[in-house]
Design goal:
- By secondary structure, the chain is α/β, with parallel strands linked by helices.
- It has 3 domains: about 1-60, Ubiquitin-like (UB roll) (Roll), CATH 3.10.20; about 70-155; about 165-215, no CATH class.
- It is about 30% helix and about 15% strand.
- The protein contains 8 helices and 10 strands.
- The chain has helices at about 10-15, 80-85, 100-110, 120, 135-150, 170-175, 180-185, 205-215, and strands at about 25-30, 30-35, 45-50, 70-75, 90, 110-115, 130, 165-170, 190-195, 200.
- A 4-stranded parallel sheet has the order 5-4-6-7. Strands 2-1-3 form a 3-stranded antiparallel sheet, with no helix packed on it. Strands 8-9-10 form a 3-stranded antiparallel sheet.
- Helix 2 links the parallel strand 4 (about 70-75) and strand 5 (about 90).
- It is elongated.
- It starts with 8 loop residues before the first helix and ends in a 6-residue tail after the last helix.
């Protein structure tokens, strides 16, 4: 590929179609470089994705290390956002969210963008992101878990599946008038959302969600 004068290696990578968020480290003539490296004639360039496990000890970091996992999902990632909330992860999402809004959020906070839109991940405001390859939500969640090693950070049923607010235990008497008759009789433990005020209890839906989450966290067989 012919590059324009003073082109950075980041510009070259994205011109070839790969978002910068999908690059873990870069070698130029065998030496690790950052995104700002200016390409020279006859340079030999090798680019490696996040899933590449043999990272050199002296690799130049392309971005600061994350200290927390906060996700923002684009408008097509609603099912994945719900599963991440089920697992206890702060996940910003609403159906009408626009790409410009996502980029603006990322300009102010270190969100990890979840999307199948490569062009969105190329935006300069977005530092962290994951291009989601599978179509099925359960496989999407598994991909995100493996990429960011999330299994040890799981906190099931600590976030509202609808609004992403945090859940806290609440006395049954406080929410008694909001409960269906059978729920009043059979359950004594309740959670309430700090955001939208929804009430959760350990019904059949709870068991189904827990089983779904447990199955997603089970390591896949190598066979």
């Amino acid at each position: 590929m012919n590059c324009t004068p003073n082109a950075t290696v980041k510009h070259m990578i994205e011109a070839l179609g790969a978002p910068h968020t999908e690059i873990e480290f870069i070698l130029v003539n065998g030496k690790s470089v950052g995104f700002e490296y200016l390409i020279q004639p006859d340079d030999r360039i090798a680019v490696y994705p996040p899933f590449y496990r043999l990272k050199p000890d002296d690799a130049v970091p392309l971005r600061a290390s994350l200290t927390a996992f906060r996700f923002i999902a684009d408008a097509h990632m609603g099912a994945l956002a719900r599963l991440l909330r089920l697992a206890g992860f702060d996940t910003l999402y609403y159906p009408a969210i626009h790409d410009d809004e996502i980029a603006n959020y990322c300009a102010h906070e270190p969100y990890i963008v979840l999307t199948r839109d490569r062009e969105l991940l190329k935006r300069s405001q977005i530092i962290y992101g994951c291009y989601i390859r599978p179509n099925k939500p359960d496989l999407q969640l598994r991909e995100v878990f493996e990429r960011y090693s999330l299994a040890e950070h799981v906190a099931p049923f600590s976030r509202c599946l609808v609004c992403n607010g945090t859940l806290h235990s609440v006395d049954k008497n406080i929410v008694l008038d909001r409960l269906p008759p059978l729920v009043r009789e059979r359950h004594s433990y309740f959670l309430k959302c700090s955001g939208c005020d929804r009430v959760y209890w350990e019904g059949t839906h709870w068991d189904n969600l827990r089983a779904q989450l447990n199955s997603l966290l089970t390591p896949t067989s190598d066979n």
